[in-house]
What we know:
The chain is α+β, with helices and mostly antiparallel strands.
Amino acid sequence: MEATPVAPGEDERGAIELLRSVFPRDPSLLRYEDEYPLAFAPRNRAFRRVVRAGGRVVSHAAALPARQKAGAIEMPVGFIGSVATAPDHRGRGAAAAAVRACEEALADEAGAVLAMLWSSEAAFYEKQGYFPAGTEIRVTLPADLDPEARLDAEPLAERDLEAVREIHAREESLTHREAEDERRLFAIYGTRAFVSRRGGRAVAYAVVGRGADFPDHVHEWGGSDEDAARLIGGVAGLHRGRSLTVLVPAFREAVASRLARLGGAREVHPLGLAKCLRPGTLAALVNRMWRETGISFRAESSEECGVEVVRGDGGRLRLSTAAFVRAVVGPAGRPLPGLPVPFFVWGMDSI
């Protein structure tokens, strides 16, 4: 099956109708395309693909190119989502064709090193070359959180956005955003953002929900360990009668520990599903980091054998491409010096 770029007009209308039928939304509250304003912006149409049959759109996938900060490494990445196929065309390769075409666009037009996605259909994506990668700590705070742990959390105001951007920029890993894009993300229906202020300026923030995604989840937050944990505790206090799950990157372990002391139950999961689109580029980025930090290792990529890591003494370690990616972004099965780097995709950036 052939997947083609989404064209304005009939393709766009057909894609949205398909997505609304597969992922129903209450149209009085939210249009599907408003939930993902960056992925469905006209400027991103070149990174979306459809499969047509019988004069209609029968499958769709969206990709969103981005630039990811991962500790000392800056890498182009791509996120894939909104994958849907009409029920009468499932099992025929339409979704696989749409996803594959999105990957090609990300690699060829945006130079993306990794593609990442989030889906409950792991078996389908594993057949397309995806594998679990990255680390996410989930801490679930109880519905009956100790009232002493509560802090008055104030709703995010327009005047807080500059401080929130500064707080977010201090994270060891993040997806770079333009200021206007960030405003559009915070404006998505169902997104509840809170801040704590000191001297009238936001020192921590936390975001619950986003459209139909992340119900009862704090999926993005920032601030010092103490300020962030206290604010999240306050948000949980406002979330009366329902437990609240907080998504925490491994490099913010101290916040997870503070939340556990409030009574939170902790679990560790993969961050998402990943596929390496440019193994040679990823190896080059790691090699640059090793050179700059004085580590005498070298990674060599080849289509035949995945990635070979050459030690300073000449010894070699052969890794599959998936194993090398996990060594870089976690969880590391075979530890390598300086790795894994801090790597996390915050909830506001997933599609």
